[in-house]
Predict the 3D structure of the following.
Amino acid sequence: MKQERLSAEELAAWRGFLHVHSELTQRLDAELRAEHDLPLTSYEVLLFLNDSPDGALRMSELADRVLLSRSGLSRLVDRLQKRGLVARVDSPEDGRGCLAVITGAGRGLFADARHTHLAGVRRLFLEPLSAARRRELAGAWEELLS
C-alpha cells in the first residue's frame, strides 16, 4: 500500500526542519555580511580551505564540500579571488586540475569571522536547546546519515 501523504507529525517534523534550517542560515548569513562583508557560503569556502592541509583543495572537491555546482563554486572563488582572500593555482599533481588556496588575508578574515559565526551558532541554535535535546539531535543526525 502506497502512502501518498505524510501524517501531521511527519509533516511537522519535515517542515520544521526546513523552516529552522532556512531561518538559521539566513540569520547567520546576515550576521557575517554585517560584521565582515562575508556571505555564509564564502565563509564555508574559507573554512574548508583553512582547515585543509596546506590551505588548498581541488576545486571539484571544494564544490562537493560546500554543496555548490562546479560553476557556482567557480563564480564564488572568482569573487573571493578579487578580494585577495583566495588564489587559484594549477595542481602540481597533474597540471590539469586547479586548486583553490586560502591567502594570508583570507586566513585573517576567516579568523575574525569564525568568532562571529560560532557565537551566532551558539546563540541561535545551541543555547535555546537543553543538553539532552542537543544529544538527541546529534543522535538523530547521525542515524539519518548512517
User: Anything to note?
Assistant: The radius of gyration is 18 Å. The mean pLDDT is 94.
